[in-house]
């Protein structure tokens, strides 16, 4: 279908934008490969859900269950970006029919629910971590701070990419207009544009659910947190592509859909053409977190190369360090943390400077760390986190512990 072809082209354009630095905003959504992958799986699951609800396909329900199971096992964010909004979307659409298709609705909701529960169970079995743990901290002050940071970051990105922002607003408002103005005509079971209405409804619900969950959980701390909002950023364009493929084949309707996609394509081209191509350095963004800046300022003095920290600080330092510092995530007591982690990294050696020498103690049990590894040789503060610096004894102690926990030979 024309929509599927254009959707692939849009994803390709976004990948080019990231790789060349032509669209600054796209740096952040792809920082986390598994969040980005969950969005791609949601785009696969939505057409399967449409086919399952409409009936007529024996394969679609099985494929939908498999995709949702794998997505939930991979990333609990999938519940927010697909499972919950899809369930509400098809419930509302079913209630608009007369008679209500309870059997088909029950099958679809059952598939979504069972796949979610089994996926979460599989994730806990594989990682020994409860699905969603580490994400949620429902406190009013954190939610308000998160909302404020989101507003600041959105304003900054709109200033950097005004064409993208205007296009996003235009397509989103068009989807809302469809929901309001075509509520009766396009929700009827025999409407040829029922699928288009369903895509618009899902997109608006998913946008609200994703942004609302991130804000309420207090997750939006700075612009890197756009990695949690990949679907709201991309769905107005990918959803338009999907909806175009669902438009009936009457010449004027298909022509209108293709024309809308043409406008989007031209707007993308203009956006890229106005941005300078990246010419220096392997990093697209000039953003450097305060923690990384501080650690690199102390790097030569304390010999900081490899270290350990909680999951969030470990990922932040390894991702943004300009000098090659590498930090592996550990539990509060300094044991392996097998959550979104390649276990080989604990025992890898990358050149001569691969000895563990420091611990970022934020979110860790500092007393337990000292009981295991002794008193640090030096300490200093970085971005509100205390950093323990050790001598040669930390590396063998950590590697022996990691090798024993992973049941692999020490390197």
Automatic annotation (TrEMBL):
The UniProt entry's coiled-coil ranges are none
**Sorted UniProt keywords:** Membrane, Transmembrane, Transmembrane helix
Respond yes or no to whether keyword Nucleotide-binding is given for this record.
no
TM segment ranges: 5-27, 33-50, 62-95, 101-120, 163-182, 194-221, 228-248, 254-273
- Name of the protein this chain belongs to: Uncharacterized protein
